[in-house]
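Checklist before submission:
- one chain only
- standard amino acids only
- sequence pasted in full

Submission:
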Amino acid sequence: MVEQEILVSTPDGKLDTFVCHPDEEGPHPIVVIYMDAPGIRDELREMASRLASVGYVVALPNLYYRIGREGHYGYDFAKIRSDDAHQKRMHECRLSLTNATIVSDTESLLPALRAPIFKCSRTSFLIWSATILLYTRMKDIYFCYINPYTCYVIDKSYE
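Returned file contents:
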């Protein structure tokens, strides 16, 4: 398996994205995992790696890239439960996201993931947390909604 960081050009700057994919020839479906409020962390990277190990190209974009590179948002993840200032800053970062910016980022990200190096198929899956509601008109997209208790797969008829 290959793990790497890529920079994707968007209308708002460079979107740093953790990507992992199988070594084997594809095509492989794309999975995009959207971080939750605390941001990218080891458990999300591990989730991405597990999915890639069974045949997916998995991207974990830093949706807070407009604020800073991964981990440089003005709060310490280890302190968000014990320090009100860090928790407040995390929520400020979360509130900086909108459906429009996430859709725009995704529209920039998917073509980058379909580059020949990643050996992708046309089918993509978007996975997001309960804090994000994503609407898009992109073709060949299947939506997954996840939270700790449920998982739904919604096909294109959802549109």
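Reviewer check: The chain has one domain: 2-158.
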